[in-house]
Design brief:
Blueprint (H helix, E strand, L loop, with lengths): L4 H30 L2 H10 L6 E4 L3 H15 L4 E3 L2 H4 L12 E5 L9 H9 L4 E5 L5 H5 L2 E4 L15 H16 L8 H7 L3 H6 L15 E3 L4 H11 L3 E5 L5 E6 H6 L20 E2 L5 H11 L3 E6 L2 E7 H7 L3
Parallel strand pairs: 1-2, 1-3, 3-4, 4-5, 6-7, 9-10
Antiparallel strand pairs: 7-8, 10-11
Helix pairs in contact: 1-7, 3-7
């Protein structure tokens, strides 16, 4: 029986891809284990108030540096990328003594970085280096050096930057995210820097999408079910909130409550006869994603929004769709 040559070829391709991922993931485990007090010092230095993180590198290291700088910025630490070649032609003027330099070089001997090294020493600008060689020129100049393990590249020839750039990128991400522990950065701050796209949608607040004022389905205690049904049909949310004289929410009636209590004299009953006396009410500042999770957990389609038990709005599951989080 002959083996399909196409299948053998496909298997070889899959195996090659899997081997790269396995090799790089193993290197990341080694990298995590290698972190020491230098990492802590680097985070504290790069996250100092009123300082910016200037990230630089050349070639593949430069591409990684661009991503790292954007990650720092996205978590509230001002940062930007400066190209080494442009730095020696005037862009060094973008760097001030209050800034912090984060330079990337696999070998630690990148000649294009020399002007930035000299500049950092001349103006006493703190420098953090990411490299694979702790005895390199870059490491000898840096105030703090983060060395990642020296392991073979995933390229079969051991030449193309693969495993090394993966570790470099992971180390930069670790630095950026660790800075969150040095400041009170929260989801609201995160949304400030991510107003667009899916991240912005996921971080939308209930108050931005809830219905208020004349769209709020409320009835007073003592109201007859006949009037309550008219209100429910008019607003179209499938529920009404029952409030007392002070405006506090004391109960809720939903379509489900109507079906469970259906009987001949229902229309002449008062709302207290069938209302749920333990209504769920959420705060206006919670995330839309959290509100959706509550709806899914409770198997409901609407949530009343309020402060100190007084309803100020209502959120329908269709509003979650409108917010783009479904």
């Amino acid at each position: 029986m002959m083996t399909n040559p196409v299948s053998i070829h496909s298997m070889k391709i899959l195996e090659a891809g899997r081997q790269v991922i396995i090799q790089e993931s193993t290197a990341l485990v080694d990298l995590a284990a290698s972190l020491d007090e230098n990492f802590t010092k680097a985070v504290e230095l790069l996250s100092e108030k009123k300082s910016r993180v200037i990230v630089s590198g050349i070639g593949k290291s430069g591409q990684v540096a661009k991503k790292i700088s954007s990650t720092f910025a996205s978590v509230g630490q001002p940062a930007f990328f400066v190209h080494p070649a442009e730095a020696s032609h005037g862009d060094l003027g973008m760097i001030t003594p209050d800034d912090r330099l984060l330079l990337l070089s696999h070998s630690g001997e990148t000649s294009e970085l020399r002007p930035m090294l000299d500049y950092s020493r001349r103006f006493h600008i703190p420098l953090v280096a990411i490299t694979s060689r702790e005895n390199s020129n870059l490491a000898s100049v840096a105030d703090i050096t983060l060395c990642y393990p020296t392991v073979p590249e995933a390229c079969p020839m051991g030449l193309a930057p693969t495993t090394s750039t993966t570790m470099m990128l992971a180390l930069g991400d670790a630095l950026a995210i660790a800075t969150l522990h040095t400041r009170s950065f929260n989801a609201t701050d995160f949304r400030t820097f991510h107003p667009g796209g899916n991240l912005g949608k996921q971080l939308s607040r209930v108050r931005d999408f809830m219905h208020t004022d004349d769209r709020l389905p409320l009835v007073q205690q003592g109201t007859l079910m006949q009037e309550c049904l008219i209100r429910m049909s008019y607003y179209g949310f499938g529920c009404v909130a029952i409030v007392d004289e002070s405006g506090s929410m004391v109960g809720i009636i939903t379509d489900g409550d109507l079906r469970r209590h259906m009987h001949e004299g229902l229309l002449q009953d008062k709302v207290e006869a069938i209302m749920n006396p333990s209504p769920k009410i959420i705060a206006p500042d919670i995330l839309m994603a959290e509100a959706l999770a509550i709806m899914q957990d409770k198997s409901i389609t609407s949530l009343f929004v309020g402060s100190k038990e007084k309803p100020i709005g209502i959120l329908h599951i269709h509003d979650c769709l409108r917010a783009g989080i479904i």
